[in-house]
Amino acid sequence: MDTNMIIGIVAVVAVVVVALIAWGVVKSRSAKQSAAAEEARRAQQAAEAKAAAERAAAAKAQAAKTESKQAEEAGAKPVASPSAKKPEPEPTAESAAPSAPSKPSTPAVAKPASEQPEQPEPAEQTAPAESAKPAAEQPAPAPAPAPAEPAKPKAEKPESTLSRIQRLKAKLANSSNPFGKALFNILAKDNLTEADWEDVEDTLLLADVGAEASEQLVDDLRKDARITGKADPADVRASLREKLLDLVGRDTDRRLNVNKPGANKPSVIIMVGVNGTGKTTTAGKLARLFVADGKQVVMGAADTFRAAAADQLETWSAKVNVPVVRSDKDGADPASVAFEASAKAKEANADVLIIDTAGRLQNKANLMDELGKIRRVTEKNLPVDEVLLVLDATTGQNGMTQAKVFAEAIGITGVVLSKLDGSAKGGIVISVQKELGVPVKLVGLGEGPDDLAPFDPEGFVDGILA
Fold first, then answer.
1. What is the reported pTM?
2. Of 149, 361, 381, 423, which residue has the fewest beta carbons closer than 10 angstroms?
3. CATH assignment of 261-456?
4. How many beta carbons lie within 10 A of that of residue 236, not counting itself?
C-alpha cells in the first residue's frame, strides 16, 4: 500500500474522531444547560407557591383578627341565632342591660368575648354545614324530568254518517247537474211527440246512463199513463222518481261488509283504481268515516310506486290518530307492506284495515297481477272482506272499461264514485251497477275531508230532480 494513502486514511480517521469528540462536548453542555433551566423553573415555581401560601396565611390571620375585634365589640350584645333573619335592628347594650336581672338565665344575653371568642364563626359556617348534609336536613332534589315527547296534535272529530247523507242531498239539489231537471222539463209537456221521446233518450245517454238502461227507462215511461196523457207536473215527477229509483236500486244492500252482522275482525278493505281517480284521498276519507262511527282503524300504504302516496296517507290518518304501516323506501314490494299491515291490525285487534294500492292502468297485465298477489299475501293473515273500486264519476262510460278489468283481476265487492258533485255524468251510478252487478256503496261530493258518504238512492234521485 502506498505511504500517501496510509497517511490519508489516518488523517480521515483523526478528523472523524475529533468531530465525534466535539459533538459529545456540545451535547454534554446542552444537557447541562437544559437541566439548569429546568432546576431554575422548579425553584421559581416553589418560590411562587411559598409566596401564595404566605399570602393565604396573612389573609387568614387578618380575618381572624377582624373576627376577634368584632367579638370584643359585641361583648354585651345578644348573639342572634344563626338561622334567624329579623328585619329589626338588634337591641343595644343599654337597652339589653335592664332586662338582664329579670331574666338571668335567658340564652339571648351574650357572654363576654373572653369566654366565647369564636362565637361569630359558627354563624358563617352554618350555611355550609346545612348544605353539606342535604340528605338529612333537606329534601332530596327531584330527578331531572325526561325530555318531553312532542305533543300529538288533537284528533279531529269527523262528521257523523247521518249528517253526511243530509249534506249529500243538499249538495246534489244545489248542483248544476242537468240530468234529472232536463228529463222533467221534457216529460212535463202535454201529449209527448216522438221527437220528445228521442230527446228523453238522448238526455239519458248524455248522462252516461247507458244504452240498455236508457232504453228500459224510456219503455217504462211510455207505458205510464201519468206521462202519456195530459201531464200534471206532480204526477210526472212522482212517476219519474219511481222509475229512476227502480234503475238505481232502492232495495240493494249497500252496507260495507264491516258493518254487517258477523263481520270479521279486523275486516280488510283493499282500495283499487287507476291513477287520478282520488283513490288515496278516498282511503283517507274512508278512515275518517269509520272513526266517526267509533271504529279502530289501521291503514296500509301499499302504494309504493308513487313517491308521495304514503306521505299523503299519513297526512290524512294523522288528523284522526290512525296508525299507518308503510315501507321505509319507495319502490318496495307492496305485497310485503300489505302483509305487515295485516299482521299489525291483527295484533292490535283493530276493527278495520284499509290497504291503499298503487293506481294502475287496466291494460297493464303485470300491474293487475300484482293486485292478485297483494290479496293472496294479505289472506295469509286475514281474510279480505271488501275490494272497493274507486271510479271518477266525470269519466262516464270510459270508467266502465276500467271497472270490468279490475273486476276480473281481483274481484270487486263495491264501487266508490268520486267527484260526483256538479257533474252531468251522474247516470254512471246506474250503468256501473248494471254492468258489474255490484252496488255503488260510497260517493264523494267535494274536496272536504268529510265529503264522503254512504250512497243513498232516494237522496240521490231527489237531489237530481230538485
1. 0.63
2. 149
3. 3.40.50.300
4. 21
